[in-house]
Fold this sequence. Notes:
By secondary structure, the chain is α+β, with helices and mostly antiparallel strands. Helix content is about 35%, strand content about 35%.
Amino acid sequence: MSSDTRPLELRPARPGDAESVADIWYHGWGDGHRGNVPDALVEARPRNSFDVRAAQRVKDTVVAVVGGQVAGFIMVAGDEVEQVYVGAAHRGTAVASALLSAAEDRVATAGYRRAWLAVVAGNARARRFYVRQGWQDEGLFDHQAPGLDGPVLVPAHRYVKDLTGE
């Protein structure tokens, strides 16, 4: 783990954060997905698509700020932790754990007893991270990711976490 000692702030995203979120999302998505998803999904995710989606999803987003800069973000919808991304310079720090904890809190506050998320099968780094954070792999399923001509089936693992503390 990195020894970055600068304070970490978690806060709701603001419209002005969308550009930083899109940049982290685009590069992080590429790191975890290129080579692990069908080409049709890669084609449906050009750089500008992240700009559009980041701006549309500000209300669903929590950002981590380190040294005055957005270091990572999460997006939650219902009981699903849809996005967890950390900028490359902040990987291996406490940013990812803090963001995932914030996502779990959002799901629990919304009244759900269990959270879930999907991880592409080939993203071993992310899969190891979720297990270290207490998430359980329920196995493979076909995630239906929005594509250019309808859903693109992506082999993914469904991870779940009980939020009740029982």
